[in-house]
Amino acid sequence: MNEVNYTEVSEFVLLGLSTLTPMKHFLLAVSTVFYAAIVVGNLFVVFIVSFDPHLHSPMYFFLANLSFMDFCFSTLTVPKMISDLYSGHNTISFQGCIIQIFVLHVLGGSEMVLLIAMAFDRYVAICKPLRYLTIMNSQMCILLLSGAWVVGLIHSVSQLAFVVHLPFCSLNEVDSFYCDLPWFIKLACIDSYRMDFVVTANSGFISTSTFFLLITSYVFILVTVRKRSSGSLSKALSTLSAHITVVVLFFGPCIFVYIWPFPSVSVDKFLAILDFMITPILNPAIYTLRNNDIKMAMKRLSSQLLSLRNIS
User: Fold this and answer.
1) Tally of domains within the chain
2) How many Å separate Cα 263 from the centre of its chain?
3) Residue 230 per-residue DSSP state
């Protein structure tokens, strides 16, 4: 009898952030400016790290890949939101929704592991400086990056394996500007308790455990440095503060969305904006504006461009 009531859902309606026309115009302008800044900022980091030989070190290798992931993370959702705000055609196909969820969790899982790799890199650099280049060689960097993408892929596939064949009824409105598992599961014609538990166990607990693992590792590094030399503590704290800021900004919304027992649509939307539009802008700003090596690389790049212009 339940099978008769199931209808094939071919598309979902994304309700977006607001239904008020003035607010839509404001969001369109703001999101366009923010996305432009995300593209310029993150691709600039990838470009300058790739082409400046002085930045060919493990720390900047991971930083460039973090910027690339942030660019992809934002591009997955923000251009679609901008298009919906501009055209008013706020639908996404069933297949498009599945693809968005899949890529979202691949990138999310990969970035979690990449942040662990960056923490490990800082641990070796600060606590074992004489062995840094031996431990963090090119093979190790590539292995850690490959492991990040593999973990992200496994994480995403394991999530979708439980939900991709869920039955759907007539409900197809997603109260957000993108597709993700919590909203996807709620639209299915089943008791969502078990599926919610799977999502919480997979995404929620992984996010929480990784977050506390990273914070613990940073505290361990600072305690180790303080025991060796109190003068080096301020330098280590300055180096790690950028990492800690990025970790809090990335994991905070993830933990709230997937584990918080009293979900609020408005809060979830705000946190989604934080993840997709604010954090990808802050990451390059945090790592570049406070980094003397990248500032010097920018000066070298400017000098090269001026010399080429003078020659032409």
Assistant:
1) 1
2) 21
3) T
- Picking from 24, 67, 9, the residue whose alpha carbon sits closest to that of residue 284 is 67
Report the distance separating Cα 61 and Cα 46, nearest Å: 9
Q: Strands 173-174 and 11-14: what pairing?
A: parallel
Residue 228 parent element (H or E): helix 205-228
**Token pair for 22:** 């003035």
What CATH number has the domain bearing residue 136? 1.20.1070.10
The CA-based angle 199-201-207, given to 5 degrees, is: 90
Token pair recorded at residue 143 = 């292995």
Instruction: Report if residue 113 sits inside a domain.
Output: yes
Give the Å distances, CA to CA, from 6 to 168, 189, 240.
Answer: 6, 8, 52
pLDDT, one tens digit per residue, over 131-187 is: 999 999 999 999 999 999 999 999 899 888 878 788 877 778 888 889 988 888 888
Helix (H, G, I), strand (E, B) or coil at 15: coil
What does the pLDDT read at residue 3? 46
CA atoms within 13 A on the CB side of 190: 14
More confident residue, 25 or 286: 25
The Cα–Cα gap between 213 and 146 comes to 20
Residue type, 207: S
Helices (H), 52-180: 58-75, 78-87, 94-127, 132-135, 138-163
195-205 as b/e: b if 16+ CB within 10 A: bbebbbebbbe
